Amino acid sequence: TAREFFDLMFEVYDQNFGTVELGGFAAGYARRGGLRREVSVLMEDWPLLLMPTSGEPPFPPADITASAERVAELMAFAWPGMSVATLGLPALGLPATRGDGAPVGVQLVGRPFEEEAVFAAGEVIEARSGITTPIDPSPRSGQAPAAAGATTEGR
Questions:
Q1: HSE-up of 86 (CA within 13 Å, CB side)?
Q2: Would the pLDDT of 149 be above 80?
Q3: Confidence tier at 142 by pLDDT (50, 70, 90)
Q4: DSSP symbol at 9
Q5: What's the order of all strands across the beta sheet hosting 91-97?
Q6: Are 105 and 86 in contact (CB under 8 A)?
Q7: Sequence-distant (≥ 6) Cβ neighbours of residue 11 within 8 angstroms
Q8: How far apart are CA 51 and CA 93, in angstroms?
């Protein structure tokens, strides 16, 4: 369950970091500023970055509650999404396909305050991917799955 996952996640956090005092927080925030600056310099030449959404291929859903050790691994593999969020960069997760047609997830990252560029590039990727609108994976009452964003009476 989600509760089990978050309990394990906080256990991993406590084991690795413990209580963070103000001095440690300030040092971490300063480090964040330095990293954000380094990424900004990189993005002067590369205004958009196409990145994986995870450092690990898809895994069985049960892994999120397997053990604190497995949750620690999954948190480590989540660096692409966690780092972008930590740095406060605009990003968009998109379904895409490899050359052989296999589906993959990608993350498009932009410069600070340039969300429009991220959305514009995301539209191009989405249009070329051939992936249709996602469906609701858990239809109720034996109904056919509804397209994401669609409204259905009585749901």
A1: 17
A2: no
A3: low
A4: H
A5: 48-52, 103-110, 91-97
A6: no
A7: 68, 71
A8: 9
Tokens of 77: 């593999």
In the block, residue with structure tokens 């996640």: 9
Tens digits of residue pLDDT in 39-76 = 999 999 999 999 988 887 777 778 888 888 888 888 88
pLDDT tens-digit readout, 74-132: 888 888 888 898 999 999 998 877 777 666 788 999 999 999 999 999 998 888 877 76
| b (16+ CB within 10 A) / e for 131-145 | eeeeebeeeeeeeee
| Pairwise CA distance, residues 34 & 48, whole Å | 19
DSSP string covering 42-74, please?
A: HHHH-SEEEEES-SS----GGGGGT-HHHHHHH
Distance (Å, whole) CA 155 – CA 137: 14
Report d(CA 11, CA 59) in Å as an integer.
21
Q: Which two tokens stand for residue 52?
A: 């994986």
Question: Identity (one letter) of the amino acid at 55?
Answer: G
